Amino acid sequence: MRKYETFFIIDPDLPDETNTVVDNKVQSVVSSNGGEVLTYVPWGKRKLAYAIKRHTRGLYVLMEYAGGPKLVAELERNLRIDERILKFITVMLEERFDPEKERERIAAAQAAAVVPFSEEEESTVGVLGGEEDIEEMPEDFEAEAFKEEEEEE
């Protein structure tokens, strides 16, 4: 199994319900062809670098998934047919990929991020931005001289 990343741009003028339908369609193509969606991240509406099909904005979406080369061909065929998709690109991230190891890695990362400090650790951690952390400017500091040095460079 290989790991792929497909980045695509959806027509920004579509209502949210239609965007949801497109999201579900793309994910179902992956799962119905023996693949597994690892991450599906909508980036939101952004300005395009150049006009595509007379659109200057687009809804950007990044999807990572695992599957075979036939899955990629079928997904790209579906994206090409769908008029709501303005552009897409697919990149292979890993040749040999084990989704089970990826799930374990993600679970371990989430578990490590959730572990709170013990009471003993909390007392040793200083509060950032406290009064003792503030460093005063020296009395002979001249802001105008500093600005002039920056402009010369």
Explain this structure:
- The chain has 153 residues and is of the alpha+beta class.
- The chain has a domain at 2-94: Alpha-Beta Plaits (2-Layer Sandwich), CATH 3.30.70.
- The chain has five helices and four strands.
- The protein has helices at 16-32, 69-81, 99-114, 119-124, 143-152; strands at residues 2-10, 36-52, 55-67, 85-94.
- It has a four-stranded antiparallel beta sheet with strand order 2-3-1-4, covered by helices on one side.
- The chain is extended and about 70 Å long.
- The mean pLDDT is 80.
Parts with pLDDT < 50 across at least 5 consecutive residues = none
- Structural class comes to alpha+beta
CATH superfamily of the domain at 2-94: Ribosomal protein S6/Translation elongation factor EF1B
Q: Could you say what the CATH architecture of the domain at 2-94 is? A: 2-Layer Sandwich
Q: What oligomeric assembly is this protein in? A: single chain
**Helical fraction:** 40-55%
End-to-end distance: 53 Å
CATH class of the domain at 2-94: Alpha Beta
Secondary structure elements and their pairing?
Layout: E1 2-10, H1 16-32, E2 36-52, E3 55-67, H2 69-81, E4 85-94, H3 99-114, H4 119-124, H5 143-152
Antiparallel strand pairs: 1-3, 1-4, 2-3
Task: Kindly list the characteristics that best describe this protein.
153 residues; alpha+beta; Alpha-Beta Plaits; four-stranded antiparallel β-sheet
Summarize the structure.
This protein has helices spanning 16-32, 69-81, 99-114, 119-124, 143-152; strands at residues 2-10, 36-52, 55-67, 85-94. The protein is α+β, with helices and mostly antiparallel strands. The protein has a domain at 2-94: 2-Layer Sandwich (Alpha-Beta Plaits).
